[in-house]
Write a structure and sequence with these properties.
- With 415 residues, this protein is of the alpha/beta class.
- It folds into two domains: 241 residues, Aspartate Aminotransferase, domain 2 (3-Layer(aba) Sandwich); 145 residues, Aspartate Aminotransferase, domain 1 (Alpha-Beta Complex).
- Helices cover 38% and strands 15% of the residues.
- The strands form three sheets. The chain has a seven-stranded mixed β-sheet with strand order 3-9-8-7-6-4-5, with helices on both faces. Strands 10-11-14-13-12 form a five-stranded mixed β-sheet.
- The protein is globular, with a radius of gyration of 22 Å.
- It starts with 20 loop residues before the first helix and ends with a helix.
- The chain binds pyridoxal-5'-phosphate.
- It comes from Coniosporium apollinis.
- InterPro entries: Cys/Met-Metab_PyrdxlP-dep_enz (IPR000277), PyrdxlP-dep_Trfase (IPR015424), PyrdxlP-dep_Trfase_major (IPR015421), PyrdxlP-dep_Trfase_small (IPR015422).
- Its EC number is 4.4.1.1.
- GO terms for molecular function: lyase activity.
């Protein structure tokens, strides 16, 4: 049975947790070892598990692709943090997306926001079509959704909020209420905010997905993905595919990502506070054309921030347009001393990149600019360093990027 054929049966919600986020992050899926009392779970590297008689495993496990203790514990922690009954882990965020798309029957139609993550766009346009799943992209999904839904064909709506790299927001509840009238499921990619800042299932989403590679692991040393949801039907279908396709993370990666997850609340709070400082610093600079940050009151969808994000937090990601074009954007990224010029996001260390020439270079310029991705756009991932040091680093890099070349040209007499 393909996903979507059952429409959506409004599954029972996960029970309201007794404990708050920080307590869940540290304790959910973290039982003490019943034999040794070890407070931290051992890494269970065995690929196979003994059986006492044919078909009777000694414990819960048979073969590691199907399940293993470290993945089970990590999945339990993700489910708790996303207010979900179930969670499944995959070998990357991209494998999570692929597995969800694979669950659709041939001939299914999907509606997606336009500025999805580049790898998601690539899968939708170059891979899903090969098994007969077609995707329509919409730049303003809240307005267009009713028109874009094809009766009986549309099975899934795909949202990323905030979007990458322009940080525009989608009102999840507004989209979900239209989708649900037609029996269509809503997926939200929550990578940019992490479960600490936003819990999409609480706003009507049916599946929340993460590139665990980013905030959840948080230390830029694991590639992994996860999906969380409440429906037992979805659990049966997606756990079947998790095992059948086999795009699963190693026990070691599950253990590392679980360790990272235990400090998610501390890291997300600090990254968000730092991003707020950096956004205000940029906004006040004469060298900056515009700042995209959901935490600023001037963000066009700030009302959605207040409605969907914990305490109106803006998250750790922002982008801005620098004066002086692509050259200035590139010089800025080379002039920062604390922010490293690199792709990716959500780690303890701050990163900067130029989407037009790096993460989004594959998208034709016209399409890119229509989505707000100009050549002078710089994307910033704030880490958890000291906010005052980040502020000073941004200010000195702006001076070097915008003013610097003129002065040095003058001094050197060269052009
Ligand atoms: C990185 C990312 C992905 C893909 O995840 P991988 O773990 O790199 O495969 C998907 N969505 C968003 C928003 C991302 O940032």
């Amino acid at each position: 049975m393909a996903l979507g054929e059952h429409s959506i049966e409004t599954p029972p919600r996960a029970p309201s947790p007794v404990h708050r986020f920080g307590t869940l992050a540290v304790h959910a899926g973290s039982p003490h070892d019943p034999v040794t009392g070890a407070v931290i779970e051992p890494i269970s590297l065995s690929t196979t598990f003994a059986q006492s008689s044919v078909g009777k495993p000694v414990g819960l496990y048979e073969y590691t692709r199907s399940s293993n203790p470290n993945r089970d514990n990590f999945e339990a922690a993700i489910a708790a943090l996303e207010h979900a009954r179930y969670a499944l882990a995959f070998s990357s965020g991209s494998a999570t997306t692929a597995t969800i798309l694979q669950s659709l029957a041939a001939g299914s139609h999907v509606v997606s926001i336009s500025d999805v993550y580049g790898g998601t766009h690539r899968y939708f346009t170059k891979v899903a079509a090969a098994h007969g799943v077609h995707v329509t992209f919409s730049p303003s999904i809240e307005i267009e959704i009713s028109e874009l839904i094809r009766p009986d064909e549309t099975k899934l709506i795909w949202i990323e909020t905030p979007s990458n790299p322009t940080l525009s927001l989608v009102d999840i509840r507004a989209v979900a209420s239209v989708a649900h009238q037609h029996g269509i499921m809503v997926v939200v990619d929550n990578t940019f905010l992490s479960p600490y800042v936003q819990n999409p299932l609480d706003h009507g989403a049916d599946i929340v997905v993460h590139s665990v590679t980013k905030y959840i692991n948080g230390h830029s040393d694991v590639l992994m993905g996860a999906a969380a949801f409440n429906s037992p039907t979805l659990y049966d279908r997606l756990s079947f595919l998790q095992n059948a396709i086999g795009a699963v993370p190693s026990a070691f990666d599950c253990w590392l990502a679980h360790r990272g997850l235990k400090t998610l609340h501390l890291r997300a709070r600090e990254a968000s506070a730092n991003a707020a400082v950096v956004a205000q610093t940029l906004k006040a600079s004469a060298h900056v054309i515009a700042v995209n940050y959901p935490g600023l009151a001037s963000h066009p969808q700030h009302a959605v921030t207040l409605k969907q994000h914990r305490n109106g937090m803006g998250g750790g990601m922002l982008s801005f347009r620098i004066r002086g074009g692509q050259g200035a954007a590139e010089r800025f990224c080379q002039a920062t001393k604390i922010f490293t010029l690199a792709e990716s996001l959500g780690g303890v260390e701050s990163l900067v990149e130029v989407p037009g020439s790096m993460t989004h270079a594959g998208i034709p310029r016209e399409q890119r600019e229509a989505a707000g991705v100009f050549d002078d756009l710089v994307r910033v991932s704030c880490g958890i360093e000291d906010g005052e040091d980040l502020r000073k680093d941004v200010l000195q890099a702006l001076e070097k990027a915008v003013v610097g070349p003129k002065i040095s040209n003058g001094v050197n007499g060269s052009v």
